[in-house]
Amino acid sequence: MPSQVVSLVEPLKIRYPILDILRFLNIPKSNYYRWKNQKPSDDEQQLRDLIQSIYEQHKGRYGYRRITAELRVQHKLVVNHKKVYRLMRDMGLKAKIRRKKYRYLPKLQNRKCKDLIERNFKASQPNKKWYTDVSTFKFGETPLYLSAIIDGFNNEVISVVVSEHPDLKLAYDTVNLALKNREIEEVILHSDQGSLYTSPNFQEFIHEKKNIVQSMSHKGVCYDNVQIESFFSHLKTEVFYSQEFTSTNTEILKIIKEYIDYYNNIRIQKKLNFLSPVQFREKFA
């Protein structure tokens, strides 16, 4: 297609004479410049502008699949994902890609608490399955430890506490904040076998809550707690690995707060019918 030829030739002009490139591709010079100077139709330009707007709104976190979904769901447009892909490529728009983590998974070992989830992560209604963990953020002046709980019904972040110390108080405060924000009958609180969650003090703390049942993944198997692992991965990649920010602890806290509001209320998810967690809860709960 003409647009593909132009996209191919333009970067190569820096290194090679354009006539040599066109000769190699067997493309007449007049055709190439006609294609290059050809302006998109009004409808296509409007679509380009909308794609650019969505891309900038989400700070480059959306690829062509999510942008296509937003065009269809939020803007009621009938548009093919291949066209969105082509336009984004022509416009030089590319989503930030999460860094892949490769982990050695040892053989299953004995568990401190029974795994009540067994990788059946989805909940049929809110406040039935909660997932929790602590992640370290080394992007500021000193390390910060973010403890969070997300709801398995809609992947909504319902509790976040940040501390300079990964201690039991951090875990206690995270659970107490979740209980303050939600009314529950009985909920499974699922975690890994980290020292906070295997602590007798924490287990006694949970037992006293009466309406919380503790569950743990197998030791060293991150896929048993993939819900919360995925959230931390998105947060670090879409903010700290791909965006510019001022590296002070105060600014880090502000950025985390802004992202969680964005994650809960705006950022669409394929598994939630291309709705944000809050939109999904309000529609289906």
What does this structure look like?
- There is one protein chain.
- 46% of the residues lie in helices and 12% in strands.
- It is an alpha/beta fold.
- It folds into two domains: 2-91, no CATH class; 129-284, 2-Layer Sandwich (Nucleotidyltransferase, domain 5), CATH 3.30.420.10.
- The protein has a five-stranded mixed β-sheet with strand order 3-2-1-4-5.
- β2 and β3 form a beta hairpin.
- The chain starts with a helix and ends with a helix.
- The relative contact order is 0.12.
- Residues 100-111 have low confidence and may be disordered.
Rg from Cα:
24 Å
Shape by Cα distribution: elongated
Q: Give the amount of beta strand, in percent.
A: 5-15%
Strand order of the largest sheet: 3-2-1-4-5
Q: Low-confidence spans: pLDDT under 50, at least 5 residues?
A: 100-111
What's the CATH superfamily of the largest domain, by name? Ribonuclease H-like superfamily/Ribonuclease H
Q: In sequence order, what are the helices and strands, one letter per element? A: HHHHHHEEEHEHHEHHH
What proportion of the residues is helical, as a percent range? 40-55%
Give the overall pLDDT as a whole number: 85
Distance between the termini: 47 Å
Structural class: alpha/beta
| Main CATH class of the largest domain | Alpha Beta
Number of strands: 5
What fold name stands as the CATH topology of the largest domain?
Nucleotidyltransferase, domain 5
